[in-house]
Amino acid sequence: MISKKVITDNLKTLFYALIIAVFIRSLLLQPFYIPSSSMEPTLLVGDRLFVTKYSYGYSKHSFPFSPPILSKRIIFSKPKRGDVVVFKTPADNRTDYIKRLIGLPGDKIQFIDSNLYINSNEVPKSRLSKSDKIFCGNKTIDVFTFEEKLPNNRLHKSAYLKSYSFDNSDLFIVPKDHFFFLGDNRDCSKDSRFLSSVGYVHKENLVGKAQFIFFSSDKTIGSFFKFWKWNKSIRFKRFFKKII
Predict the structure, then answer these.
(1) Dist. CA 196–CA 205, nearest whole Å
(2) How far is it, in rounded angstroms, from Cα 26 to Cα 10?
(3) Are 216 and 128 in contact (CB under 8 A)?
(4) Residue 88 a catalytic site member
(5) Which of 99, 125, 203, 209 is catalytic?
(6) Rg of the chain on CA atoms, in Å
(7) Statement: residue 104 has pLDDT above 90
(8) Is the pLDDT score of 94 beyond 70?
(9) pLDDT score recorded for residue 21
(10) Which residue would you say has higher pLDDT here, 223 or 177?
(11) Max CA-CA distance within the chain?
(12) Contact (Cβ atoms closer than 8 angstroms) between residue 62 and residue 38
């Protein structure tokens, strides 16, 4: 028969383990899973990555279930243009999105003839590939892959449909204390261009900065439990890949 002391000790151990896990998840690192293709080619469906919670300071969204324990962000550190950021969507303050930071407070963002402009200056991009296939939901699309150079000289990959379906946009002026985000899969991303669902993101909604991929698997080939397909489904080359 198990003694009362053994049960009490086990419960204490579980409680302390839970406290440590919440502390790490809230203040240091949190794992995230990529469920959509909006950040291809940078992030693939099935990537699992770590996000640093301390990169931009802390708000109520740093904690599980966003409890109202902080009225404003503390120890705030301004994110840099080009960072890949996890944030809570302004529409419900609950759903986690991951996108690339393009516009800072006061910036003017616009697409003209399928080219991205920041503060009336075209963002230079060089084509890396004339023929790539990436996912858009459950279908594949034909894209051009580019390397874009942001005003702070940050380089990243982006993909555009060969037909350049997103030609022109309204002029977006980023409000104070807000940020403008885009998916790298430009023609298959719900981001700050869609004001009714995402729009400008307040600094309070920032969760953390994506740092590196620690695991990646392709579910279209097989699940994790089908070990005989691991050599094809697990993307070993993406393990510990830094996110840029």
Answers:
(1) 16
(2) 24
(3) no
(4) no
(5) 99
(6) 20
(7) yes
(8) yes
(9) 73
(10) 177
(11) 76
(12) no
Q: What is the mean pLDDT of residues 68-89?
A: 96
Which stretch of DSSP H or E encloses residue 136?
strand 125-136
**Average confidence (pLDDT) over 186-200:** 94
**With contact defined as beta carbons under 8 Å apart, do 161 and 187 qualify?**
yes
What's at 81, amino acid-wise? R
Q: Among this protein's residues, is 216 annotated catalytic?
A: no
* Cβ-defined contacts of 90-97 (< 8 Å, 24+): 90/198, 90/199, 90/200, 90/201, 90/202, 90/205, 91/196, 91/197, 91/198, 93/61, 93/66, 93/205, 94/66, 96/32, 96/207, 97/181, 97/191, 97/198
Q: Which residues contact 13 (CB under 8 A, 6 or more apart)?
A: none
Segment 84-102 mean pLDDT: 96
- Which residue bears the tokens 């406290």? 19
Average pLDDT of the segment spanning 114-138: 92
179 pLDDT above the threshold of 90: yes
- Distance separating alpha carbons of residues 41 and 111, to the nearest angstrom: 20
Helix (H, G, I), strand (E, B) or coil at 75: coil
Residue with structure tokens 């350049």?
164
Q: What is the pLDDT of residue 231?
A: 73
Q: How confident is the model at residue 49 (pLDDT cuts 50, 70, 90)?
A: very high
Q: How far apart are CA 53 and CA 75, in angstroms?
A: 12
Whole-model pTM: value is 0.91
Question: Does the N-terminal peptide bond of residue 41 adopt cis geometry, omega within 30 degrees of 0?
Answer: yes
Structural domains of the chain in order of their starting residue, each with its CATH number: 31-242 (2.10.109.10)
Three-state secondary-structure class, residue 163: coil
**How many other β-carbons are positioned within 10 Å of the β-carbon of residue 204?**
20
- Strands (DSSP E) found in 28-92: 29-33, 47-52, 84-88
